[in-house]
Amino acid sequence: xxxxxxxxxxxxxxxxxxxxxxxxxxxxxxxxxxxxxxxxxxxxxxxxxxxxxxxxxxxxxxxxxxxxxxxxxxxxxxxxxxxxxxxxxxxxxxxxxxxxxxxxxxxxxxxxxxxxxxxxxxxxxxxxxxxxxxxxxxxxxxxxxxxxxxxxxxxxxxxxxxxxxxxxxxxxxxxxxxxxxxxxxxxxxxxxxxxxxxxxxxxxxxxxxxxxxxxxxxxxxxxxxxxxxxxxxxxxxxxxxxxxxxx
Length: 247
Ligand SMILES: NC(=O)c1ccc[n+]([C@@H]2O[C@H](COP(=O)([O-])OP(=O)(O)OC[C@H]3O[C@@H](n4cnc5c(N)ncnc54)[C@H](O)[C@@H]3O)[C@@H](O)[C@H]2O)c1
Description:
The protein has helices at 16-27, 39-49, 66-80, 103-131, 152-172, 197-205, 215-226; strands spanning 7-11, 31-36, 56-60, 85-88, 134-139, 177-184, 237-240. By secondary structure, the protein is an alpha/beta fold.
């Protein structure tokens, strides 16, 4: 097992990519804190995975609130003794023509999708410094690399995550703390629930592979970056996008 004796936090762990990453990490031997605002789904997942022992706990956290993040890191240390891995995956999607995007909506998207990633890294890295190393994995997007109409706030946030990842990677590499990001293409998760079928078809056509991603395909990339197999991978923004950005 590739994550034996490791302790991880997965934000946004109740659903979609986060849920599948929790499943994969537990399969690989990690103890995992499922951190999310969705208590019902997160607790259900924890109960399912704990049938043969305590592999996970659910912790309520709103990643735009620094106090919640401090409590989340404290919980990982209290339950499992340390913190080795954080996957800062919580995020929200949004499509608005930019001239109709209220400043409040802009701020909400930035505070969850960018500020939350910074705050998670800040407090997770402090915990990792106590044990001499760790792996921070941020969730960016293809929209951290290329633009798309009507996604100004989301794309600005993900572009921020892409370069925040590089800045943190350089800052903490010598402390054996590896910071990387995953940049998924469109993945079939509840974040796309509101997307009309024609729009979904249009999105599929942008991926040379001819389909959307599956959340478990992103989860496997997260496990790789979390594991010691990625010991020389630092500051990477790993595109897992079915070829979206290659064309
Ligand atoms: N699905 C895609 O097409 C796609 C593509 C590229 C990047 N991403 C990114 O992947 C990540 C996961 O998205 P997903 O597709 O699994 O979506 P999802 O909606 O299935 O899961 C997102 C999770 O984040 C949680 N969350 C939302 N706001 C939160 C907050 N303030 N604090 C804590 N938790 C919060 C939700 O409750 C949910 O469990 C996001 O960062 C998203 O931007 C998704």
